[in-house]
Amino acid sequence: MKDEIVVHGARSHNLKDVDISIPKNKMVVVTGLSGSGKSSLAFDTLYSEGQRRYVESLSAFARQFLGNTDKADVDSIDGLSPAISIDQKTTNRNPRSTVGTITEVNDYLRLLFARIGEPICPNDGTKITSETIDQMLDRILELPERSKVQILSPVVTGKKGQHKKILEGIRKQGYLRVRIDGELYDIEELPELEKNKKHDIAIVIDRLVIKDGIRGRLADSLEMALRLADGYALCDVIDGEEILFSEHYSCPHCGFTVGELEPRLFSFNAPFGACPDCDGIGMKLEVDPELVVPDKTKTLSEGALAPWDSKTSNYYPQYMEMAAKAFGVPLDVPFKDLSSDQQQLMLYGSGDKEFHFHYENKFGKVQDKMTTYEGVIPNVKRRYHNTSSQAMSDVMRQYMTELTCETCHGKRLNRQALSVKVGGHDIAEVTNYPISQSRAFFENLQLSEQNISIAKPILRELKSRLNFLDEVGLDYLTLDRSAGTLSGGEAQRIRLATQIGSNLSGIMYVLDEPSIGLHQRDNDRLIKSLKRMRDLGNTLIVVEHDEDTMMQSDYLIDMGPGAGDYGGKVVAAGTPEEVANNKESITGQYLSGQKSIPLPKERRTEDRGMIHVHGAAANNLKDVDVDFPIGRLNVVSGVSGSGKSSLVNEVLKKYLLRELNRSKSPYGKVKDVSGFEELDKVIDIDQSPIGRTPRSNPATYTSVFDDIRELFAQTNEAKLRGYNKGRFSFNIKGGRCEACHGEGIIKVEMHFLPDVFVDCEVCHGARYNAETLQVHYKGKNISEVLDMRVEEALDFFDAVPKIRRKLQTIVDVGLGYVTLGQPAPTLSGGEAQRMKLASELQRVSTGKTLYILDEPTTGLHTHDIKRLLDVLNRLVDAGNTVIIIEHNLDVIKTADYIVDMGPEGGEGGGTVVATGTPEEIAAVPESYTGQYLKPLMRD
């Protein structure tokens, strides 16, 4: 018993009283079709119960800070270990969160720079030092015997003004002599100071001769000088050089001061270290001239200045027109042909120059005055920041973009923090290296013997964490990479690396498809890392579809046999070999080779032209030129971080969205994109949720619910009652249950205990009021229809072509098992993506659409991938063009055309390694994708 986790009667979601024994301290993979119950067993049963038991062992006071966990719907679980979940939904979208902060590498870096960093003046490159009084004394006493010196306190350095108050204060304190601009004056003979001239003023504290026994007097003088000048002192050697002393890190030439070196100075999340201009974000939201004037071929009278559209306002177009006439800017010349000065004036305003403005609104209010012309860009900025209207703020926001901060150049830190170097580099430069380069930097760091002793424990922790990140295939990431830009798979592997570094044992880790976003080349390193965690004495429960991960697991659980209500059972469990030999298991049939995704009988070769991308240079792309054939199934492949997303999502997609879909979002750096004249629109099918509230569901998203509500409104009962289509919506008053506002459930807050969700006692979860539920179509009310699986609904509405056609597309993408009213937030990213695909399939195809998909196989079993490929090929057969970013070899091998990026990730990538058919890619030795494709191609 102690070597197993024994589950009895698991019923979470679609699980059907599952009983199973899972070996502990092994790598256990849970697989099966999408919707078969994998996550219900792994996360909603094993992890949920493991976490709940730990939390319940704590006091009620502690539980309120840890959150509440529902009890899993299971009879019993024995042998359960403390559980840690490493899923894909925990990415921190805070702009202040980076790879370095998540992994705690930044904490050790800040400590390293605070302890052994050397400040270098950014103005002249002088090494900046701070000294104790003893060190200052030692330097003075190194002067030749009998040297004459005077100790001064520099109270004014290079500042304009008469400084009367300072001089009066010196006189009152009883000091006898003052040095002003290099000249000595008795206190009673001070000159008049020129107000507009920079002055240096220093009080003469003491004059003495260097000899034995002078140290005590010298120390007293230095202490007084330092106190008066806030930590600064001068030793003026008569007939010799002058020595500047500072208790601070301060440049002896220009006075640039760093202050005390402490870890908080190197944090962009603390005011001590953050850039004062961008507050440590590294970016600033600014008005983008390209968005303000999206079409430079338009004239001012035709609306070249987009924010001042005559369709939404009469005031600003008239204001602009009168200003243009007053300042001699032609209204009928394309904006691109205006002179530079004229463009600047219209964009940024007239400064102090005024013009006569006359305006009468529709209510008769008149403005007649001399005024300056504000300019469209300052106007947008002012209206964005000063408005109290969220709607107005949103409108102005669309003309703004995040630009690199001009003060810190994106480094996030202030000048003081960036002046401190280790190995000749500041902390921002080190965090900007890819992890692979950071490792090399610390391995080759040359330090003094003293600094080696100080840095040794810090460097050990740094190298350890960087090694773990490298092991899970993230060596291409930079430490300053914003957490919000990480994919779910990358965020998950970062957390995985952190857990490896913790060296915990006796833990049950539950992971959600850790191979997502990984090229086959990097997958081996990931599996090695997982096994390392297992060998520490941990149990790994891995929800996964990757064949290599399954075959290298210790124990394999196949859920099914179908999805939704057709799933929820353990079809097969045992070693990978045992599952492969189980004829009841679809997974086993694919593992054994009985089933497979075949190569296409022929590749599409029809020449309908190319989309040409010229000079793409976004992120790590190195001036890439590449073509995508129109009317084919294109796949962009390459190792993680090779530039796939930069090329497709940042450059191609965003460029074409602006050109074809009239989007205003900026696109990645590129010289030109051409050849897309045959296309009419771009459809981006990503994995973002189809809705963020339970009110959104497959029926509402695909618009089939509109047709169903229309059908109910046409029934005789509805007509007799005078019910229209709106009566059957649970989102508006009329037909919905007002006790729960159409949600069907009511949340009961339990303070220290988990919140309890109970069915509404009025509608009993039906969402509608009793009168609405009395209307039936073919014996079912509207609530019962929402509870139907899509497959059931397809049969139920077989006689209604409009509804049947929409439902069929959902079944075609492999989502027949979901219910029509299933809350959108409960759909996985892969399910949401396929629901979007189904929604697009419903539309009448023009044969001129470009579909872009980013890793659509995420969360899909091989059997589901086969169905997805059928759908995608239907789109291409209809004349459309499909571009997919993908690592899955089954998808790559069926493509008509491949663009393989690489050869490595990060700075080692960003180029096109090979293009062509899968057969052509497989013949390129430099292509990692080709190496893995080769065995799959025909002999």
Automatic annotation (TrEMBL):
Keywords: ATP-binding, Cytoplasm, DNA damage, DNA excision, DNA repair, DNA-binding, Excision nuclease, Metal-binding, Nucleotide-binding, Repeat, SOS response, Zinc, Zinc-finger. Residues 603-934 form the ABC transporter domain. The keyword Zinc applies. GO terms for cellular component: cytoplasm; excinuclease repair complex. It comes from the Bacteria. Forms a heterotetramer with UvrB during the search for lesions. Belongs to the ABC transporter superfamily. UvrA family. The UvrABC repair system catalyzes the recognition and processing of DNA lesions. UvrA is an ATPase and a DNA-binding protein. A damage recognition complex composed of 2 UvrA and 2 UvrB subunits scans DNA for abnormalities. When the presence of a lesion has been verified by UvrB, the UvrA molecules dissociate. This is UvrABC system protein A. The lineage of its organism: Bacteria, Bacillati, Bacillota, Bacilli, Lactobacillales.
